[in-house]
Amino acid sequence: MKKIITVCLLILILINVIKIPTALAAEMTQGAELFQIHCVGCHANGGNIVRRGKNLKIETLERNKLDSVEAIAYLVKNGKNNMSAYQERLTEIEIEKVSAYVLEEAKNAWHSEGMMSKVKSFWDSLFNQDISRKN
C-alpha cells in the first residue's frame, strides 16, 4: 500500500514539474513576441536608439529602480519622457508578460537564448537527453 501511495505521489510531482517549465516557457515566448512587436524598434538587444543611457541592461534598470516586474510594468503602462505609454495598446496581462521578459533578458545580459535556454536545460537534465533531437 505504501508503494502505491509513493508511486502516485511521484507521478503527481512529475506531472507538476513538467507543467511548470511548459507554462514558464509559454509566458516567456509570449513576452518575447510582444517585445518583438512593440519594443524592439527602440530597444533591440536591450539597448535604446533614442537615449543610450536609458537602456534595458540590468545595471541601468537597477540604477533607475526598475529592477522588478512591477516597476517595469508601471513604466510600460504609463510611459515616461520619450517612451510612449502602452496601456491603450496592451492588456494588463500582456504588459506583465513583456515586463517579465525584459527583466529576465536583462538578468541574462540580453543573450539571445535567455529563459528558453534555461527551460531547455531543465528538460535535458530531467530526461537526461537533448529534447531538440529527433530519434
Task: Please tell me about this protein's structure.
By secondary structure, the chain is mainly alpha-helical. The protein has a domain at 28-115: Cytochrome c-like domain (Cytochrome Bc1 Complex, Chain D, domain 2, Orthogonal Bundle). The protein contains six helices and no strands.
Order of helices and strands: HHHHHH
Q: Report strand %.
A: under 5%
Shape: elongated
Structural class: mainly alpha
Question: What is the fold named in CATH at topology level of the domain at 28-115?
Answer: Cytochrome Bc1 Complex, Chain D, domain 2
CATH homologous superfamily placement of the domain at 28-115: Cytochrome c-like domain
Quaternary organisation: single chain
Mean pLDDT: 80
Largest sheet: none
Keywords:
0% strand, 6 helices, mainly alpha, Cytochrome Bc1 Complex, Chain D, domain 2, 135 residues
Summarize the structure.
With 135 residues, this protein is mainly α. 64% of the residues lie in helices and 0% in strands.
Helix/strand layout:
Layout: H1 2-38, H2 40-43, H3 58-63, H4 69-78, H5 92-107, H6 114-127
